[in-house]
TrEMBL record:
Residues 1-37 are annotated as: Disordered. It comes from Claviceps humidiphila. It comes from the Eukaryota. This is Uncharacterized protein. Residues 21-31 have a biased composition (Low complexity). The lineage of its organism: Eukaryota, Fungi, Dikarya, Ascomycota, Pezizomycotina.
Length: 53
């Protein structure tokens, strides 16, 4: 069985849990987000935006 990617788990697992799974693999969540300040901010900025969303 192939290992599911964090991006695939995120919608089903819930925000809190998926946040931890997605942190090592930022390109997948970033690809779903609009380009802009997320890219230079990195992990901290990404988590902050997720909290506001």
């Amino acid at each position: 069985m192939p290992t599911p990617r964090p991006g695939d788990i995120a919608p089903r697992a819930g925000v809190r849990h998926s946040r931890r799974l997605a942190s090592p693999e930022l390109p997948a969540p970033l690809a779903l987000s609009p380009p802009g300040p997320l890219v230079p901010l990195g992990v901290a900025g990404f988590l902050r935006v997720r909290d506001l969303a």
